[in-house]
Amino acid sequence: MTDHTPYQDDGRLKRLKDSLIERLGPQAIIDQPDDLVPYVTERRGRYKPQTPFVVRPASTQEVSETLKLCTALEVPIVPQGGNTGLVGGGVPYEGRGEVILNLGRMNKIRSLDPDNYSITVEAGCILQRIQEAAADVDRLFPLSLGAEGSCQIGGNLSTNAGGIHVIRYGNMRDLVLGVEAVLPDGRIWNGLRSLRKDNTGYDLKQLFIGGEGTLGVVTAAVLKLFARPRETAVAFVAVQGPEAAVKLLGDLRRASGEAVLAFEIIPRIALDFALKHVAGTIDPLGQPAAWYILVELAAGRPDSGLGDLLEEALSEAFESELVLDATVARSEAQAQQIWFIREAIVEAQKHEGGSIKHDVSVPVAAVPRFLELATAKVREMIPGIRPVPFGHLGDGNIHFNLSQPLGADREAYLAQWEVVNEEVHMIVHALGGSISAEHGLGRLKLEENKRFKEPIELEMMRAIKAVFDPKGLMNPGKMID
Q: Where is the FAD-binding PCMH-type domain positioned along the sequence (predicted)?
């Protein structure tokens, strides 16, 4: 059970809770310590969040009522979705009396328009449910994440989530047609337009997408749908190295007519971890290699010959010595076995002790240089460290995870998180990259972002924050101070 330190409160929190119970009903309030645990549990255990109570509105109007009261009483509020974030963006600080606004009860699919290739959903909808609803009408919602069975679309919107299909469909920013949002003063902006073209002013929805709940609360969105692939081809490929992988990506994009759906890089150490710790993991190739690529192509026809195309392209890459070996899945079961490797390497790292993590991106062409420089730097800093860089090479997003040296003390190793992050992020910045590719900034990267952002960018961000949230009540201490 989480320890909840008593708040030194002047009575505003009680007045707020009493008013919310009166207007929303007692079912909208969670305030018992044991019941609060899931809402104040930070996924990586880096923080010990505290809140006096959680508000769970059931409608946009109830969100509006909540924000009006919070603004009137000057009580800070933390919007929260499925609480699956990795940077502390959806949890409160300790001892500040910040109330959590959880959107889980707002989970309706409001409308589904297959002809317009769009779906309108509330913020609390689980991502997987949206995927399934689209599939039921022979459409695709392409956002795909490891947490898709529990994360909520509101959180995906607020962090501009990415995932494995960004190379083909883009980030969350690219998948949204319109949003509905409640401003800090309780006013409701209905921007639920399903238009593909609208040049009548600023694209206001983009302020809320990736805004981490610092400007208001996204309560619903109109999302883009796509035609479902009728045929896919999956391969597991051993490559000469990251440089060869980048060249292979370009060759496959050209040969397939931009049919590349996913292009994931995996080092041998990650596969070894998965084979050791996760039952059901296979080694698809006969001989070990230092680097692998998991590639998937997709086509709109079931008889497109995509598998033959992929095999031919890989044969040509073998002749040009980009590829050392490869296997192309011959069935859906084999494709799932290959994709299971990608899922297993995330789980397997937990069994190898402490892991210092980075969610970074650089231009795709700069990935090999980043891996070279960052690996050399961390090995210089911590002898015996075990880099496990993997992820979305197709869009330049690398999860540069660093497992502790064998036999090291876990806590002592993790105490070096910030200093290691700083060195790695300096390399990322020098290569024109981003210190947060898809997880957001939250609490974790607030100070670092101030070091790497241009002063004029921070000035513009603060100016926008001041217009929307002049009292600084919306998710305070996240993204920008």
A: 47-228
